[in-house]
Amino acid sequence: MLYGKKVIALCTSRVYDTQVNEFIRTLNSLLDHRKYIFFIFSINNDMYWEDNNVNAGTSVYSLIDFSVTDVVIIMDEKIKSKPVSGKIAADAKTCSVPVIHLDKDGDGDGEDGQEICINFDFEKGFELIVRHVIEEHAVRRVHLIAGFRDNPFSDARVEIFKKVTIENGIPFTDDMVSYGNFWAKPAAEAALKLVESGRLPEAIICANDVMALGVCAALAEKGIRVPEDVIVTGFDGYDEIYFSMPTISSVRCGNDTMAGVVFDTLMELFEDNGPEENMYTGNLPSGRIMVTPELVLNGSCGCPDSEPPADVYGRMNAGFYRYQDDIRRMFNISEVVQMSDSFEKIAECMKDDLLLDTCCIINRSCLCRENDYFSAESISMEKHFEEERILLYDHNSDTYDLRPIGSSSLAPNLKKLSEGEYPVIFTSITYMDKPIGYVCFSYNSCEMPDYLKTFQISTALGIGLGGFIIRQYQRYLNEKVEEMYKNDFLTQLYNRNGFFAAFQNLRAERAYEGQTVSLFSADLDGLKYINDHFGHDAGDVAIKAVADALRTSCPEGSLCARFGGDEMIALVFGNSPAGEIAAKISKYLDRFNADADLDYTVSASCGYCTAVFDESFDFAQISRLADENMYKIKKNRKDDK
Q1: CA torsion angle for 317, 322, 325, 330 (degrees, to 10)?
Q2: What are 265-285's pLDDT values in tens digits?
Q3: Does residue 380 surpass a pLDDT of 70?
Q4: Model confidence over 589-619: pLDDT tens digits?
Q5: What are the tens digits of pLDDT across the range 284-331?
Q6: Per residue in 57-84, pLDDT tens?
Q7: According to the model, what pLDDT value does residue 383 have?
Q8: Left if phi > 0, otherwise alpha if psi is -120 to 50, otherwise beta: which for 350?
Q9: Among residues 586, 578, 566, which one has the least CA distance to residue 626?
Q10: Which helix (H) or strand (E) holds 30?
Q11: What are phi and psi of 620, to 5 degrees?
């Protein structure tokens, strides 16, 4: 329970699919939003039953907070992955959250009172259309175009076809079945083979609507009329069957009907104790609930056209109008996101009316430009969103601050979003099969025009943010390479190339034009002795100590460099007394020797020369003078010994 309401979590795929959208709209209209919060967790891409690879989009399911969720509804046939659906159900059951499966393959689990399956009776529905063709239209020469070979759904329809033909005195032979792989093109090819063989049947029964549409198109190209020359039927009841010529006879698996059965199940699950509270009764209805599909008769079998669903034209129109321009605008935003140089600019470019009713949350690790995000080891979907989440964009906010929202919150202002009369939708943002974050959609409708945007927005943001993260890491690598090129590895001072590059930039910028400049030349005393008696590691310690002394003693903005071996220089701008800087270097080394307690003493001879930084400044000449002073000091030290 959350904010005093029961939480219903729907796990599905592609909320913009007409069947999924129909289910959501119907169930949402039945729910009393004073008592229930409806959250939808959706992936955008298809998965396949035979493929056990779990794609990054499924990370959205890990957002479900089972501590506040009261029931989980899993649309298994839409997700099409047993490992994914099984993981959701297992997590729910571990937290004693009841699970309702829709069209789950296999037996339901009703023994523990936490899991139930509500399925369309596809076999019964398919038998309706086969019997109608054979028994009502008196067809004797009938052919089935099934799905894939050795596919359980396809095989089940083959068995039903075989059963009905035999019951009607039609001998069944294997050549009465072709395979169209549940898709239009292979189904059309199968139909053309029948035409070319000269064995065109009286009726072609297709295992789904997509294949039926493909078969009708292929027959029309050959001048074969439907239904005058051959009857064609489909199965599923997609909206497209009402817009073909002729309209397609089919079997409608009405998701509005399914939503009504789910609603009734929810009402049994929660005993209604009035508007203040719904209590979990402790058990779901046991076993498996079967929903019988509806026979839809249309022109392709010679029957009068059925009345299409009331909103079918609106749903079809949603797929054609306005969205090409939305896609163009969204991918323009995606390009700007990729080319941005900061997350602040990304948030600014997301302020577009296409992104109204949305907020975008990303993982904190995306902010780390030193992180090779997409080459890191894959993060399992159940772990990915455990790290701190960062709010990148919120349409309700005028400020940008990359605000953490915590690992327990799904979105900012979630309480306000939950007070609405429509579902809150969550979809992952992914790139290169790695989750980046997710988008929260809070539309004031369940209509297709809005739900189509969930795919456009999350996909475009994935491309944009993924490209930006890669470019950030590339910038970091370039800086590191440039730093390696310009800086000495041991001392982190400029090397010779880096020094002269910085020096030339200062000359070009004329930043210190006319100011006093001092060039220091520092040389470690007795490096050969240290290397010979204590080893080169000891020599490196001494070199680094002199470099640190030079850097810390010179004022900010000075150019310090190791020119090679134990030779170092510093270019100091301004009126800093050169003698005081040389004294600081000596004092630093005295403290170093006292603290380090080495078997040798680190000291340096430091000479300098002062000049004016103008067009007449000659680095080579100044450097030579500083070196001469340094060697004089070094010689005097040797003479004193």
Answers
A1: -90
A2: 898 888 654 434 433 344 455
A3: no
A4: 999 999 998 999 999 999 999 999 988 899 9
A5: 555 678 888 999 999 999 999 988 876 776 666 655 555 567 778 888
A6: 899 999 999 999 999 999 998 998 888 9
A7: 52
A8: alpha
A9: 578
A10: helix 18-30
A11: -60, -40
Beta-sheet pairing, 6-13 with 36-43: parallel
Q: What domains lie within the chain, and their CATH numbers?
A: 6-105+255-292 (3.40.50.2300), 123-252 (3.40.50.2300), 323-483 (3.30.450), 496-640 (3.30.70.270)
Band of the pLDDT at 254, cuts 50, 70, 90?
confident
Please choose, from the candidates 126, 168, 162, the residue with its C-alpha nearest in 3D space to the C-alpha of residue 143.
Answer: 162
**């950030």: which residue's tokens?**
472
Pick from 173, 186, 119: nearest CA to 146: 186
Length of the chain (residues): 641
And the tokens for 21?
């959208």
Strands (E), 147-221: 177-179, 203-206
Full 3-state SS string of 602-615: CCEEEEEEEEEECC
- The dihedral of CA 479, 484, 490, 491: what is its sign? negative
Residue 509: Cβ-neighbour burial (10 angstroms; 0-12, 13-18, 19+)? exposed
Residue 594, C-beta contacts closer than 8 angstroms, at least 6 positions apart: none
Is the pLDDT assigned to residue 109 strictly greater than 60? no
User: How far apart (Å, rounded) are the C-alpha atoms in residues 585 and 25?
Assistant: 77
Cβ–Cβ < 8 Å for 547, 491? yes
Beta strands 515-524 and 294-296, pairing class = unpaired
**Cα-flanking dihedrals φ and ψ of residue 18, to 5°?**
-60, -35
Q: Is 429 exposed, middle or buried (0-12, 13-18, 19+ CB in 10 A)?
A: buried
What tokens were used for 247? 């309209």
Q: Is 304 exposed, middle or buried (0-12, 13-18, 19+ CB in 10 A)?
A: exposed
User: 618-622: which pairs have CB atoms within 8 A and are 24 or more residues apart?
Assistant: 619/503, 619/519, 622/519
Non-local CB neighbours of 265 within 8 Å, separated by 6+ positions? 100, 116, 118, 284, 285, 289
Euclidean distance between CA atoms 587 and 604, whole angstroms: 11
Question: DSSP code of 223?
Answer: T
- Containing H/E element for 587? helix 578-596
Q: Which two tokens stand for residue 628?
A: 């001469």
Six token digits for residue 340:
């941005």
Work out the number of other CB atoms within 10 angstroms of the CB of residue 312: 18
Q: Going along 292-388, which residue ranges are E strands?
A: 294-296, 358-363
Least confident of 32-46, 370-384, 574-588: 370-384
Q: Amino acid letter at 548?
A: D
